[in-house]
Structures are given as C-alpha cells and as structure tokens.
Amino acid sequence: MADLPVARPTAPLERIALLDALRGFALFGICIANLLTGFSLWGEKGAPDPATLSTAATDPAAEFLAVMLVDGKFYSIFSLLFGLGFSLQLGRAETRGDGDLRVYRRRLWVLLGLGLIHLFAWPGDIVTFYAAVGFLLLLFRRMTDRKLLGWAAGLLLAPFVLYLPYWLSGGMLNLGLPFFMVANAGLVRLGVPLGLYDLLMTTDWAVLIRGHLVGPLYRIGDLLFQWRTCKVLAMFLLGLYVGRHTLHTRLDEAAPILR
Predict the structure, then answer these.
(1) Could you give the percent of the chain with pLDDT greater than 90?
(2) Which string of DSSP letters, residue by residue, matches 154-176?
(3) d(CA 128, CA 108)
(4) Is the model's pLDDT at 156 over the cut of 90?
(5) What confidence category does residue 2 fall into, taking pLDDT thresholds of 50, 70 and 90?
(6) Cβ 95 vs Cβ 248: under 8 Å
(7) Got the DSSP string for the chain?
(8) Both ends of the chain: CA-CA distance in Å?
(9) What is the dihedral of CA 157, 124, 134, 88, to 10 degrees?
(10) Left if phi > 0, otherwise alpha if psi is -120 to 50, otherwise beta: which for 114?
C-alpha cells in the first residue's frame, strides 16, 4: 500500500492573499473593539464615572457607533474565516486520504492547549472557545448545503428567542449567573478585589495572579450569557459553505450572494 501524502505547511505561493489580508483586517478591528470597551475599562465599577469625563457629551453616540460598526462585525469576519479555513483543510485532508482529519484534530488540541494557558492570564481569551467550537464544526462537514445554510440561519436567529427569558425576568434568568456568583465568591475567598478595574490597577502581582485564577469562570459565564456559541458556530458554517463552493476565488460571480 502506497504511503499517504504527508501534511505540510502551506507554501507561500499557495497561500490565498485575500484571506490573509482579511484575517489581518479582522484582527485589527477586534483590537479596536477591545480597546473601545474591555481594555479601556470604560464604565467598569471603580473606574471614573463616564459622566464625569470630558467626552461625556459625545460618549453615548461613540458607544453606539462602536457597537454598530465595530464590536460585532470583525469577530464575525474572523469566525467566517475560521470556517473557510476548515473547508480548505478538509479539501487537503481528502487529497491526502486523511478521512478522520487527524491533522485538523491535532491542530485543534494544540489551539485548545494554548488557549487554556492564555485563559488563566487573561479572562477575555477567545482561543479556547474557538477550539471547542471547532470540534463542533466537525459534525457538519458532510451536511448538505441546504441543511448547512438552514443551521446557520437558525443559529443566527436563536439568540433573539433565547434572550427573551433574560429580558422578561429583568435579568434574573441568566445562564452565566451561577458562574459569576461562584467566581465572585472565589475572589472574596482569595482576598482579591471584585471589580476588574480595581484588580488591574493593583501593583501587587500576587493579587493579580490570584484574581486570574477565577477568570475562566467569568469567561464561561459571559459566553453563556451572550449565547456566543450560536453566533460563532453560525459564522463557522457560513465560512464552510463559502469554502466548499470556492466563492472567495470568484467574488465577482458571488456579488449577489454577498449583497
């Protein structure tokens, strides 16, 4: 029996410049989104009251534009590219005869490991989550286009319905709440400030490290509260569809779909 072709990194001349450029563009936008919200600690408990800032008059409009034009847009592009990348890897795996996608699974495990390390250094880590959802993506690889798009549409619409109990209960029915409560109790037990602003402003590295120990609980709670799995998996599936039909290589033909 002949040996199967060995998996290897994509050669520079084989790379798709458009996708690499889009990844860079998406990461730049994600960086801006984080600077506008999480990294700036704007509005965090303990931080200066936004109403007292010199930009108080224009901040509401700026926040609206940031959420509308930046916050959810760039991670959506990045998520779609993840699914598209999976489609390309799937094609190469079939060429190699790698039916169980050993290389892809191995990459996900490495990604998961790196993400878990980062998760304990910064609770806003996204790599762990992407790796976990990447394993879910494997379940859809042989699905027909019709079902694939149906699942994507359903997952994108699901949060509209799933958020209803939260709003109708005045915020009480929140899947992430148990994780937030356990995390807060952990911070108290560890003698760490409850507010992210106060934690990050500390000059005591031991306190900062102890605070990050419960960071994963906050991250899990936040992802559950956002129904982020629905949104990200939906974009993964759309990326899989784009890659399956190589729409990224013939954008002029695909203009109606893009619109």
Answers:
(1) 41
(2) HHHHHHHHHTHHHHHTTT---TT
(3) 9
(4) yes
(5) very low
(6) no
(7) -PPPPPP-PPPGGGS-HHHHHHHHHHHHHHHHHHHHTTTTTTT-TTSPPGGGSTTTTTHHHHHHHHIIIIITHHHHHHHHHHHHHHHHHHHHHHHHT-TT-HHHHHHHHHHHHHHHHHHTT-TT--HHHHHHHHHHHGGGTT--HHHHHHHHHHHHHHHHHHTHHHHHTTT---TTHHHHHHHHHHHHHHT--SSHHHHHH---HHHHHHHHTTHHHHHHHHHHHHTHHHHHHHHHHHHHHHHHTTGGG-TTTTHHHH-
(8) 49
(9) 100
(10) alpha
| pLDDT score, position 100 | 77
Higher pLDDT, 41 or 13: 41
Q: What is the pLDDT of residue 8?
A: 64
Tokens 């847009």 locate to 73
| Averaged pLDDT of the chain | 88
Which pLDDT does position 181 carry in this prediction? Answer: 93
Position 258 scores a pLDDT of 73
Nearest of 125, 74, 104, 127 to residue 240 by alpha carbon: 104
What global pTM score does this model have? Answer: 0.85
